[in-house]
Amino acid sequence: MIITRILAPNPGPFTGAGTNSYVISTGGEAVIVDPGPLIDSHLEAIRRAVAELTVVGVLVTHHHLDHCPAANPLAEEYGVPSYGFGSYGGFQAISRLADGDVVHVGTEVIEVLSTPGHTPDSLCFAVGDGVFTGDTIKAGTTVVVEDMSAYMKTLARLADLAPARIFPGHGELIDDPPSVIAGYIAHRRGREEQVVAALAGGSLTTEEIVAAVYPELEPTLLILATQSATAHLIKLVDDGRVSRDGEEWTLR
Ligand SMILES: [Zn+2]
Fold first, then answer.
1. Which end of the chain is more exposed for a tag (fewer CB within 10 A), N or C?
2. What are the sequence ranges of the domains in the chain?
C-alpha cells in the first residue's frame, strides 16, 4: 500500500499550510481521501497522482469547505462514488457510510469509524496501522469542536484503537498517535477544569467565562473561544456538573 499526500494551496489560520488530500493505492487501484477545495492546480496534482491507477472511490471525512468541494466533481470524472456520512451541511455523498462499513481498494480494506465532535458528520478511515482523521485530529492547528461530549468519546475511541500513524487533514504525518491523543484529551480536560474553576466564584455568563478562561485573547479569536467555551459548558450540563438559566451558567 502506498499513501501519497497532496497539499492543497489553501493555507490559513484554520487550515495551517493547507488541506491534506491523500491517495491510498494498492494493486493498481486507488482511493482519494478529502480532495479538498476546487482549485485547478490542486485537482491537476491529484490527477497526476492517480494517473497510472484505477480510481475506485473518493472518500470524504466531513462537509467543511476545505475538505469536500472537489469530491463529487472528481467522483463524476472517474465514474466512481463519493463516500461520506451522507447529506450534511451542503455536501451530499453519493454513497453513505456508517460506523463499521468498509471500502475496498485493491487488497486493502478501509474501515469506517463514525467520529463525531468536530462536526456531527465527521468520519475517520482506518487502513493498515494508520488512520485518516480529517479535522478530528490535526497537526499544528487547533480543532474547533461542535459537540464536546461526543468529541471526548471519539478521542477515547481513537486512543483505544492505538494506531501507529495518523494522517491528519492538516499538518504533518503523526507518528506518535498515543501521546498526541493523550495530549488532546489532557488539553480538553484542563480547559474543562478552567471553566469549572471560573464558575466556582458564582454564576457567570458565557462572555464572562470566556474572559476568565482566555485572559489574553486576541479579538480575532473571540468567536472561536466563545464556541469552544460553549461546547465545554454544554458538556458540563450533560455531565450534570453545571446548570443553565437563561444567559447564566452555575455550578451544581
Ligand atoms: Zn473541518
1. C
2. 2-175, 188-251
Helix (H, G, I), strand (E, B) or coil at 96: strand
- Rounded to the nearest whole angstrom, what is the distance from the C-alpha of residue 57 to the centroid of ligand 1? 21
CATH level 3 topology of 2-175: Metallo-beta-lactamase; Chain A (3.60.15)
pLDDT along the chain (252 residues), means of 10: 97 92 97 98 98 98 97 98 94 96 97 97 98 95 92 98 98 96 96 96 95 91 92 97 96 95
Ligand 1: distance of its center to the CA of 231 in Å? 16
Instruction: Give the model's pLDDT for residue 14.
Output: 82
Question: What is the CATH T-level fold of the domain 188-251, as seen in this structure?
Answer: Arc Repressor Mutant, subunit A (1.10.10)
Q: Which residues make up the environment of ion ligand 1, defined by Cβ < 5 Å?
A: 64, 135
C-alpha cell at 15: 487550515
62 Cα: distance to centroid of ligand 1 (angstroms): 7
Give the distance (Å) from ligand 1 centre to CA of residue 52. 30
Report whether 19 contacts 66 (CB < 8 A).
Answer: yes
Q: Per the structure block, which three cell numbers stand in for 146?
A: 461542535
Alpha carbon of 145 to ligand 1 centroid (Å) = 9
C-alpha cell at 73: 466533481
136: CB partners within 8 A, 6+ apart: 61, 115, 117, 118, 122, 124, 143, 151, 154, 158
